[in-house]
Amino acid sequence: MVMHDSRLAKIESEIRGFVRAFYPDMVVRTEYWEKDPSRIALFFIDERFRALYPRQRYHYLVNLIPKDYYDSTLADTVWFELTPEQSPEMVEDDPDEKLIASITPDVMAALQEKGFFAALDEMFCPNGAAEPQECSGDFRYAKQALQLCGFEESDWSDVFHVLMGQGAFCDCEILYNAATESRLKTQYWQRRSHDKRS
Ligand SMILES: [Zn+2]
User: Fold this and answer.
1) Which of 1, 122, 161, 188 has its CA 20 to 30 A from that of 34?
2) Do 4 and 40 touch, CB atoms closer than 8 A?
3) What's the CA gap between 176 and 187, in Å, rounded?
4) What are the residues facing 27 on neighbouring strands?
């Protein structure tokens, strides 16, 4: 039996309103959480989540929802961010935060030493005649850069959770927020200062 009441229906339609512009095809579903029916479970289902880690999915979603609405209505809700064929059990848990914090200095040093940031910067801000890439809101180019620099695919999850811990949730944010220096970041600030002068 599907329990559905007006409270759930209202939250569903309000959330659809918040995410529609960014995720026009997203399915939003609410129900009383199976494991604790005093709490509401929110299901966000979208094909575009496919290449994203759960933490990235959450990051993009939560930024679309006004903070006062979140605080007043969603603070106690349980979120599931899924691709169309995923069930909640299929989503891997985020790695332990303490573990990520403990490996962060070594991972950042290894990325720097093996030239990862420079390789990614070269894609977005090429020195030569190559066309600069544009960020797609995922890590597709960072994955290529990791491969170029000799990182194994088994390292990806650790590397990206370290980078997300530095505030980098997509390729360009790696260069803006995690890299100590990048041509992309320099260019950005140069443009900003030109904008102000004009
Ligand atoms: Zn980006």
Assistant:
1) 161
2) no
3) 11
4) 45
> How far does the centroid of ligand 1 lie from the alpha carbon of residue 190, in Å?
18
Residue closest to 47 by CA, chosen among 82, 95, 12, 93: 82
- pTM listed for this prediction: 0.85
- Tens-digit pLDDT profile for residues 42-97: 999 999 999 999 999 999 999 999 999 999 999 999 999 999 999 988 888 888 89
Angstrom distance (rounded) from CA 43 to CA 28: 6
CA 117 from centre of chain: 18
CA of 36 to the centre of ligand 1 (A): 36
**Is the CB of residue 85 less than 8 Å from the CB of residue 47?**
no
* Beta-strand runs (E) in the chain: 27-32, 40-45, 78-82
Kindly give the distance from the C-alpha atom of residue 138 to the centroid of ligand 1, in angstroms, as a whole number.
Answer: 7
Cα 110 to Cα 55: distance, rounded to the nearest angstrom: 23
Rounded distance from Cα 145 to ligand 1 centre (Å): 15
Cβ–Cβ < 8 Å for 140, 171: yes
Nearest CA-CA partner of 61 in 84, 37, 79: 79
